[in-house]
């Protein structure tokens, strides 16, 4: 006879076994929601539906794989899948904590570089301790209870059929929901099928779906979408008339208006885009030719050629921000920021590969391609408009320096290709290998190499401002510790300022050497950051901001652009929105260099073109207001009457900027126009 207890135990064991069908869908959804709340402080939005459907589809697929295996293999495979997914979730959480963006597959190849900053990684783990523990919960539960549950599955046929069917149903439902989406300024359909924006993708679709989309865009380069590729919706098809208006600047020394207004030409080159489009059978190139031919160029202005023939020193300063400009702590930075061109609404957006992408934007006036190291990928292209190449064609001596490892982010490939004779630590630049290295030492040993040349253009990528901002483990912060000891701030805030003091000392030394060589009045200094100091949490940022909390959505990126020449008698104040994307065209115009403004994504800040600041997640700022892509809302400036459809037109314009920046990189488009080297 059957034992009565055993008779009643079978259904219980069967019920326990069927938990495997639900385990992965529910555990993965738990981990997705932890990241959604932690990284975006959002849960109940339209992205929750897509995240749930895509996650259930993946979860059912993993359950199916485990179910078809024999009992012992089920538990082992379940532990492997759960361990790998949990590890990826945890890596993304720590990476986002440090860099405020998500790790892409392409950057995994540079893991050796990332591991150099192991102290920053440990700090990120500590800051994200709570979400990391929550992410571990499914793995711990499976470790304790999973063996019995997976072994007790009574049969494999029907659970496998159910899991397979649910995989297809959930994935089809997710694709249908995304495909039918039409609301908002940027639709989920565009984000899923036509673009790859890591932060928005994680917010809308989840970490694991973003991983799949990342692999797709890494392996395949889709053609431009029809959302605006062939016929941009932005105001780029209007006929261009000669300008008689003045730029949006204030200059107390401007001459009195003349009786007849000055007519300014467009900053364009003699390129027949229509003929190029008609002469190619490649649909992608034809779309590119039509797009660039339809863009409205920026016009020359009263500042065109103002610095023609002068020397230029351009710096991308690590972690620099408006909070580093202080009349007492950093008097040289303060002087340069307030006595040249003064940009009151300048931004340094954060991009996917932080420092490298920040350099790419400032040096190329192109938006980085998500998921790759754009600066490195450009190393085999014709980077025709980079200032090193532009000035070299004008007969300038062009050099570049970086006081950290010379081939970090493959600068040994990208920087010579931008037109520079390049030196870095370990390859021609003799500075002490501290961490971080000294900007002051770099100036002391490099300025004598070029100060006797005339004319010259020199580019610097500094490193003294690098995180972590503590007095232990950061040589520069410790070196300047006494200079900030009197400040009533946390260690992190004081250490940040101590690092920026080194940049100030470097600039002081630079100006002194230029003056002693008789080159000061003939040299222009331009400086911007690679990104804001993301190594600081909200508390220290508020301290630097005078005790006021910093808006982490937009205001945290507002910074200072230095553009200074000692022969400027009065400052020139510019109050329109602008960003590091605009540096290259602005300098090209000021130095009277021949360039085509239609082929750059930034705009000459001093022109009469309206300001546009673009962020990595497709958010943007204009003189009319700002668009938050995460919330999918456009907020007009107070008292501003925004025309109907304005936000959508600007959003489509921004989408085109991303799409065609990517295609310029992928197609070596400048090489097609001007010849491949």
State the major sheet. Answer: 10 strands, mixed
Question: What characteristic shape results from the CA principal axes?
Answer: globular
- Fraction of residues in β-strands: 5-15%
Number of helices: 26
Trace the largest sheet across and list its strands.
1-12-3-11-9-2-8-5-6-7
Overall pLDDT level: 89
Cα-to-Cα separation, first versus last residue: 88 Å
- The count of strands amounts to 17
How many whole angstroms does the radius of gyration measure? 28 Å
Q: Percent helix among the residues?
A: 40-55%
Give me the secondary-structure category.
alpha/beta
- Low-pLDDT segments, ≥5 res: 4-16, 222-247, 251-255
Q: Could you explain the architecture of this structure?
A:
By secondary structure, the protein is an alpha/beta fold. It has 26 helices and 17 strands. It is globular and about 85 Å long.
Features:
single chain; 677 residues; alpha/beta; ten-stranded mixed sheet; four-stranded antiparallel sheet; 17 strands
SSE blueprint:
Layout: H1 4-17, H2 19-40, H3 47-67, H4 71-99, H5 105-108, H6 111-114, H7 118-127, H8 129-151, H9 157-179, H10 188-194, H11 198-205, H12 207-219, E1 249-251, H13 273-278, H14 283-294, E2 311-317, H15 331-338, E3 341-343, E4 346-347, H16 354-364, H17 374-377, H18 387-393, E5 397-405, H19 411-417, E6 421-425, E7 428-429, H20 439-450, E8 456-461, H21 475-479, H22 491-516, E9 523-529, H23 538-544, E10 558-559, E11 562-565, E12 572-574, E13 578-579, H24 583-590, E14 612-614, E15 620-622, E16 625-628, E17 633-636, H25 646-667, H26 669-674
Parallel strand pairs: 2-8, 2-9, 3-12, 4-13, 5-6, 5-8, 6-7
Antiparallel strand pairs: 1-12, 3-11, 4-10, 9-11, 14-15, 15-16, 16-17
